[in-house]
């Protein structure tokens, strides 16, 4: 028997298993006469809308910018060269812009707790939502110890005698304190922590420009010298034109691990004050973030250091104690090459706040994802319990188990632990983007079938549904070709093949959901 849906929301009119998101339990609306948009006053669940517009903007930066932009980007430079790195970041930013275009329209229209995780269940299929939710939860949860391990490594820039266990314990305690209380305090802490990332990016851009025109101890106006010698495009795996193309692919996959964004805005949908206004603004500004932070960062990286820098290659190839620290950052190496003694320490200090901020955002997103899974019946119902201040307390407790994985760094090489965790999550985020585009295609079809004019929506994405199809194809190609080098003779590496694990486990778990897979029409 077909399940009837509300023509406005796409949610079942009577759906006892969907945590109250039937038509009779929709959020209250008032009408903003100046903008002719519905303004959501409060949720039907127990989360509280306490995140202000300025907090949302900074939380988005905090979650999307982490270690990769400042440290790991060096591997993309050595494999692809500055030209390939720059082009790859532009290309992938365009790919992700297509996804953002889809997510913005859906999230602003239906700013519910869990956002795309719950949309997958309601607009596509229950099993699809189950798979998507658990995939995203595991992705975010595993990134928490990844960032703590990265923080340990960054601290070793100053001393090798840093007590790793103490750092892990301190991070876990601080994450717990920040996320245990009302969401507005999380938003406020992230506002200031993310400010450190903005300062770091501004400092790196200033360093790049000033030194390239001769403002350095050597008075060397090197400009774009490294784009000419050794060149803009490096060879990777093979030689010649094919090798340069494979170098571009390596840089593209580094961009895929570095550039993120729309999912973090979407996950704040259920706790954003005035979501129709604040979410719309956040989604619109993400495009210039791609251009300034990520594309600008890739350009700066290729300017300040050649892709064949001996120290950078030695650190990345050796996998020693400096791998993953500020010492392996191409910017820090460039500062040291120019004889600048203070900036590397300032950079490392700001990296500490940057990494801590990213981990803080992952705790928040993982907790809210698990809560949304429980609302849709895809996780135990006891996880729906919230405190009076709107914090899903049991979801928080489950999420805080994952940071303890960071203690693995105490008994083995920190760099190796980071490699394992990073490889485990790299493909998961691309799979999430594939799912977002898929959800939009179903959403667009539902609007068309039910005769709803998209121009009546509070936000209308550009060139739909072509953007959704293009984004879907781009992400499928990206994840489908990822790790192809493991299939080449002499290149097999079990660690590099592990990103498929989250996808495989999610699909397997979805078969154990206990629900019949039924697509809503």
UniProtKB/TrEMBL annotation:
The chain crosses the membrane at residues 58-77, 83-102, 123-144, 164-186, 198-215, 286-307, 349-371, 391-410, 430-447, 468-492. Residues 1-34 are annotated as: Disordered. Its main location: membrane. GO terms for molecular function: amino acid transmembrane transporter activity. Gene3D superfamilies: Amino acid/polyamine transporter I. One of its GO terms (cellular component) is membrane. It is a multi-pass membrane protein. Pfam families: AA_permease. Residues 56-490 form the Amino acid permease/ SLC12A domain. Keywords: Amino-acid transport, Membrane, Transmembrane, Transmembrane helix, Transport. It is found in: Membrane. This is Amino acid permease/ SLC12A domain-containing protein.
